[in-house]
Specification:
The chain is mostly helical. The chain is built from 7 helices and 2 strands; from the N terminus they run H-E-H-H-E-H-H-H-H.
Length: about 200
Amino acid sequence: MQATTDKLQNWREQIASFTFPRWQELPEIELYMDQVVGYLSQKLAVFYDTDDDGRSITATMINNYVKQKIVQSPVKKRYSRAAVSALMVLFCAKQVLSIGLCGALIAQCREDMGSGDGDPAAQFHDRFCHIFETVLHHTVAGDEDLSYLSELRRCDCTLTTTAIAFANQIYAERLILQNAGSDSKTDNNKEKEITANE
């Protein structure tokens, strides 16, 4: 039981210090498929267990998003910074939205920022990072003061709502898996005791 509790606390601490790479921190050079998979797997590992194949980032997954025109096609088998950004957003948003809605979210947000100065993809990426980080940190910390959400919603209601759903889902899953793990160990210990008594 203590080991399970420690594991949850370690995860909370990882989330508390977690930051998404901002646009300028994304790889400047275009990446081949295996490099994209490796990069995203490393940067987003805190959101899934290494033995959870359902959450792993795979080449097949990325190819599907390209075929659905949600992610830019690679040029000479290399993926741009904008494609890596879209994949990062997709990985998080697809936990709570359909793939089609994820694509619409990215397209709408980039379009909304197209009226201002600067690169819409870069502006959207950095806004996504800020909003998702803020909501994650407050949610996992158990912050009961939700006043911070008002400012985020004024900034971008759609992204904020998606971030809330994402943060609540991964935190709920982590809590349930922790309890399931401790219950499983308890059941195993009981079985051992029964076998010994027989």
